[in-house]
């Protein structure tokens, strides 16, 4: 296959074509360096400049205040599930709150429970994670636990396709957010958070690098007995280079954040584009609700992962096969939700979403 397909993968996911072209152009020789990004020392001036630009791009896109560190860590978001309780719990605050709105929140809670007795302050399990606590009365109410070290939530549940529109209010309790699957798709008020983390392989780059944005005071006094790599303060003190960092991933993240700033025009613009694209698909679900059943309650639908089911398993298989024959790929839903998941991250071109929309309309006409 030599032509690019429309790739609706949930991650690693589609990247901007101009970024891929730049990587290709500089694959053999970074300008002025004489070698590729993968062949130069992380201590070289060239790499240090790339890392500094990646950090400053993130700082300017998200308006990150100076009292926050921007760290690049390996181990994916899953390692954060452990590093967060290891660094933020203390003998004085041995427990934290978790809002469980889908599969990833559950995974993060399971890891955290190895370090203390976490409190589930809200869970959407009973309705198979089709809603959020902020979604009106149907979502239920929750309260932060006094003396919780932090409250953890997942802003966008990649598998179920539910996404918070607002930031949960925790008062003085530091808010910790897994933004893995909606990072950099909208402006965020970083000052409302204690810690934000996101693996790169959806909106920010290739697999292998995870961004952690953390308030400096939260990590300053953490015990030095933690394994060195798992202590945030060590990454901060070494400017994310306590060991060899994922140089290629950081380089691509720099190119993607350049693209967001220069080609897209910032995160407000990105959010507008994402909203318009997601609407194309949700409109088809709403207009054909006897055929397509959206998983998420309408008020918490994700702009990143559109999840829906068809009337039968046979029709789902037919949908996937016919879509694939039209170069619409990686649309199968996760087995816990079934049906279809169209991941339409930042780099998905509008033409891809339009093509899927047209296909969905035709498929419904022909099969209902
Ligand atoms: C919301 C969310 N959190 C965490 C993860 C896990 O990320 P990783 O595979 O980098 O550990 C994913 C991966 O898809 C995710 O979507």
From TrEMBL:
It catalyses: 4-(phosphooxy)-L-threonine + 2-oxoglutarate = (R)-3-hydroxy-2-oxo-4-phosphooxybutanoate + L-glutamate; O-phospho-L-serine + 2-oxoglutarate = 3-phosphooxypyruvate + L-glutamate. The keyword Hydrolase does not apply. InterPro entries: Aminotrans_V_dom (IPR000192), Aminotrans_V_PyrdxlP_BS (IPR020578), Pser_aminoTfrase (IPR022278), PyrdxlP-dep_Trfase (IPR015424), PyrdxlP-dep_Trfase_major (IPR015421), PyrdxlP-dep_Trfase_small (IPR015422). Its cofactor is pyridoxal 5'-phosphate. It is an enzyme of class 2 (transferase). Binds 1 pyridoxal phosphate per subunit. Gene3D superfamilies: Aspartate Aminotransferase, domain 1 (3.90.1150.10), Type I PLP-dependent aspartate aminotransferase-like (Major domain) (3.40.640.10). Pathway: Cofactor biosynthesis; pyridoxine 5'-phosphate biosynthesis; pyridoxine 5'-phosphate from D-erythrose 4-phosphate: step 3/5; Amino-acid biosynthesis; L-serine biosynthesis; L-serine from 3-phospho-D-glycerate: step 2/3. Pyridoxal 5'-phosphate binds at residues 104, 158, 178, 201, 243-244. The modification N6-(pyridoxal phosphate)lysine is found at residue 202. The keyword Signal does not apply. L-glutamate binds at residue 43. Signal peptide: none annotated. One of its GO terms (biological process) is L-serine biosynthetic process. Its EC number is 2.6.1.52. Keywords: Amino-acid biosynthesis, Aminotransferase, Cytoplasm, Pyridoxal phosphate, Pyridoxine biosynthesis, Serine biosynthesis, Transferase. GO terms for cellular component: cytoplasm. It is found in: Cytoplasm. GO terms for molecular function: O-phospho-L-serine:2-oxoglutarate aminotransferase activity; pyridoxal phosphate binding. Residues 5-355 form the Aminotransferase class V domain. HAMAP family: SerC_aminotrans_5. Belongs to the class-V pyridoxal-phosphate-dependent aminotransferase family. SerC subfamily. Catalyzes the reversible conversion of 3-phosphohydroxypyruvate to phosphoserine and of 3-hydroxy-2-oxo-4-phosphonooxybutanoate to phosphohydroxythreonine. Homodimer. This is Phosphoserine aminotransferase. The gene is serC.
């Amino acid at each position: 296959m030599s032509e690019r397909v429309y790739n609706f993968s949930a991650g690693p996911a589609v990247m901007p074509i101009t970024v891929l072209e730049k990587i290709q152009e500089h694959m053999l020789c970074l300008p002025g360096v004489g070698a590729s990004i993968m062949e130069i020392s992380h201590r070289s001036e060239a790499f240090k400049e790339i890392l500094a630009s990646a950090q400053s791009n993130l700082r300017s896109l998200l308006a990150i205040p100076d009292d926050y560190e921007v760290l690049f860590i390996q181990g994916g978001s899953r390692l954060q599930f452990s590093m967060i309780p290891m660094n933020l719990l203390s003998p004085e605050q041995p427990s934290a709150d978790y809002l469980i709105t889908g599969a990833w929140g559950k995974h993060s809670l399971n890891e955290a429970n190895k370090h203390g007795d976490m409190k589930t302050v809200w869970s959407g399990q009973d309705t198979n994670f089709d809603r959020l606590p902020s979604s009106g009365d149907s979502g239920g109410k929750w309260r932060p636990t006094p003396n919780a070290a932090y409250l953890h939530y997942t802003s966008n549940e990649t598998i179920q396709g539910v996404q918070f529109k607002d930031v949960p209010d925790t008062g003085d309790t530091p808010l910790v957010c897994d933004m893995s699957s909606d990072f950099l798709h909208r402006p965020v008020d970083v000052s409302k958070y204690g810690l934000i983390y996101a693996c790169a392989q959806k909106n920010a780059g290739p697999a292998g690098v995870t961004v952690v944005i953390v308030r400096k005071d939260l990590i300053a006094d953490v015990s030095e007995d933690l394994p060195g790599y798992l202590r945030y303060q060590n990454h901060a003190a070494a400017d994310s280079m306590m060991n060899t960092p994922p140089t290629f991933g950081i380089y691509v993240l720099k190119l993607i954040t350049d693209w967001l700033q220069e080609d897209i025009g910032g995160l407000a613009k990105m959010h507008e584009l994402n909203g318009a694209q997601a609407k194309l698909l949700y409109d088809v679900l709403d207009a054909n609700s006897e055929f397509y059943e959206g998983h998420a309650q309408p008020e918490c639908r994700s702009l990143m992962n559109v999840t829906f089911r068809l009337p039968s398993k046979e029709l789902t298989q037919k949908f996937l096969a016919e879509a694939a024959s039209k170069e619409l790929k990686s649309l199968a839903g996760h087995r816990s939700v079934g049906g279809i998941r169209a991941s339409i991250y930042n780099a998905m071109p509008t033409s891809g979403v339009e093509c899927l929309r047209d296909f969905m309309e035709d498929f419904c006409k022909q099969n209902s």
